[in-house]
From TrEMBL:
Active-site residues, as the UniProt record annotates them: 218
Gene3D superfamilies, alphabetized: N-(1-d-carboxylethyl)-l-norvaline Dehydrogenase, domain 2, NAD(P)-binding Rossmann-like Domain
SUPFAM superfamilies reported in the protein's UniProt record: 6-phosphogluconate dehydrogenase C-terminal domain-like (SSF48179), NAD(P)-binding Rossmann-fold domains (SSF51735)
Annotated GO MF terms: glyoxylate reductase (NADPH) activity; NAD binding; NADP binding
Known function: Catalyzes the NADPH-dependent reduction of glyoxylate to glycolate as well as succinic semialdehyde (SSA) to gamma-hydroxybutyrate in vitro. May function in redox homeostasis and play a role in oxidative stress tolerance by detoxifying glyoxylate and SSA generated in glycolate metabolism and GABA metabolism, respectively.
Catalysed reactions, semicolon-separated: glycolate + NADP(+) = glyoxylate + NADPH + H(+); 4-hydroxybutanoate + NADP(+) = succinate semialdehyde + NADPH + H(+)
Keyword DNA repair among record annotations: no
Species classification: Eukaryota, Viridiplantae, Streptophyta, Embryophyta, Tracheophyta
rRNA-binding keyword on record: no
Protein name, as recorded: Uncharacterized protein
Protein's organism: Kingdonia uniflora
Top-rank taxon, per record: Eukaryota
Amino acid sequence: MAICSSTFVPQIPIYLKRIPISSFLIKPIPACSSQTLTTTSASKDEFPARVGFLGLGIMGTLMAHNLIKAGCDVTIWNRTKSKCDPLISLGAKYKPSPEEVASSCDFTFAMLADPESAADVAFGNHGAANGMSPGKGYVDVSTVDAETSKLIDRHVKAAGALFLEAPVSGSKKPAEDGQLIFLTAGDKALYDMVSPFLDIMGKSRFYLGDVGNGAAMKLVVNMIMGSMMASFSEGLLLSEKVGLDPKILVEVVSQSAISAPMFSLKGPSMVQSKYPTAFPLKHQQKDLRLALGLAESVSQSTPIAAAANEMYKVAKSHGLSDQDFSAVIEALRTKLQSP
Ligand SMILES: NC(=O)C1=CN([C@@H]2O[C@H](COP(=O)(O)OP(=O)(O)OC[C@H]3O[C@@H](n4cnc5c(N)ncnc54)[C@H](OP(=O)(O)O)[C@@H]3O)[C@@H](O)[C@H]2O)C=CC1
Ligand SMILES: O=CCCC(=O)O
């Protein structure tokens, strides 16, 4: 299995010739470690590559917005066209299909809901692969399983183009702030070419080698996250049942060895039974399902993730799919357990 490289010789592609050389020199790729990135205030002249963005949901909209704000030449598409309008009013170009976006851009990013939509947009009817050709690159930042990613890779390669999987860690606020963490794998040349764009949208990037490794890393991270949230939910409800103030539990946890930004961020609203959507519950359940498939493929036992997955399934069956994933706590409330 290929792993991260620890040295980086800048190879400046033609598209990026006008990006200040310092942008490359100050961002060597460390061996799988985060990097501190500079913010640039740029113009289209500084980012002459044409960048496509497919999929403008919660994450895609904010990521594409950051590219536009940085001065990139961005062309967008979304299944529901109305979601394109705010970005068009900020200067984005629009094309009516993924194929047309890909054929008019040098690099095309895709942020889709799940493996099915990622595959359909990449190589279905009028999919991006139809518009790809040598010299172009496709970067899928959706959370999918390794098999789907490899399938997309094959279609993109068949068109003579390059492919990078680059799922992200970090939710709505990090996406808004350009603070995402990219977990990339695939064509290293494409990784080098799109790094300036990843750096606009994120705070760090990891290059993990062969296609599938980025997807696997993302699923392992989200498997841990889904289980943590399920366990936190049990703790909140138990504290309430035994007469403790769950608000104080949140405070105690935040000062303890098990402190995590996620608990401090989500805890106060969970205590009020409010779940403003940053990461939809249906996507967390999808990630647990895919992570369990990954574990199954290597005969790894994951009983805690399996139990957590059941909680998310119960929450979905009670209509909570589009709420934030912290609404999984509702699956533990007596009224939901026996509808
Ligand atoms: N939200 C978060 O915190 C994070 C999410 N992710 C991952 O990023 C991806 C996107 O998440 P998020 O933005 O929250 O999700 P949303 O549900 O907000 O957006 C999903 C996007 O996929 C599109 N889509 C869904 N089905 C299809 C289809 N059949 N054909 C074409 N397009 C389709 C939607 O189009 P339409 O508008 O027409 O419905 C929309 O653009 C998911 O894989 C998720 O797991 C990763 C990190 C964080
Ligand atoms: O896939 C979603 C991840 C959400 C997060 O990292 O906070």
